[in-house]
Write a structure and sequence with these properties.
4 helices, about 170 residues, globular
């Protein structure tokens, strides 16, 4: 990924608002769906996808479940990194993907900070369960995983386009 100084392509007001909106939409959708699942306590669906309420004190897939404060600190670092890279990248596509990662990280981080049993030790509300896949996940997890993958693809695509441009100038 190319990191650039202040004159970056994502420095424009419209792009910054779009990035902020992307982050806010992911965060809001995550928190609304978690609130609905907590309020309704559904256990719905027996097919490929079902709703199952799980409180996860660990990272993705329950990794490090016995260390919630460590997982919270890692989540803070990931959110900070995603936000910093989103602001500093030259590629708008990468910036939007990282804004989705940031929204997801903030969604899960807010659970860790604000939900029981207390500050920095809270459990993330996971509720989407896919048959044949261990564990459950939520909207934030989807945004983090898909946003990170899409950011990597966008970085490679941008680098590839930059490499091709000089070749095209020689053929003219």
């Amino acid at each position: 990924m190319t990191v650039v100084p202040v004159n970056s392509a994502v420095r424009g007001r419209a792009v910054r608002w779009a990035m902020l909106s992307t982050t806010a939409v992911v965060l809001t959708a995550d928190q609304i769906t978690k609130s609905l699942v907590l309020r309704l306590h559904p256990a719905a669906g027996a097919g490929l996808v079902s709703v199952r309420l799980v409180r996860n004190t660990g990272a993705s897939g329950g990794i490090a479940a016995g260390y919630p404060v460590l997982v919270t600190l890692a989540a803070i670092a990931i959110a900070a990194l995603a936000g910093t890279l989103a602001i500093r990248t030259r590629s708008r596509a990468v910036a939007f993907c990282l804004a989705a990662v940031l929204g997801g990280a903030l969604g899960n981080l807010s659970d860790r900070l604000l939900r029981a049993p207390g500050l920095g030790r809270g459990a993330v509300v996971d509720w989407i369960h896919v048959a044949g896949r261990g564990g459950s996940f939520n909207i934030s997890d989807v945004a983090i995983q898909l946003g990170a993958i899409a950011a990597v693809v966008a970085m490679f695509a941008a680098d590839r386009a930059r490499v091709r441009r000089p070749d095209e100038s020689w053929s003219k």
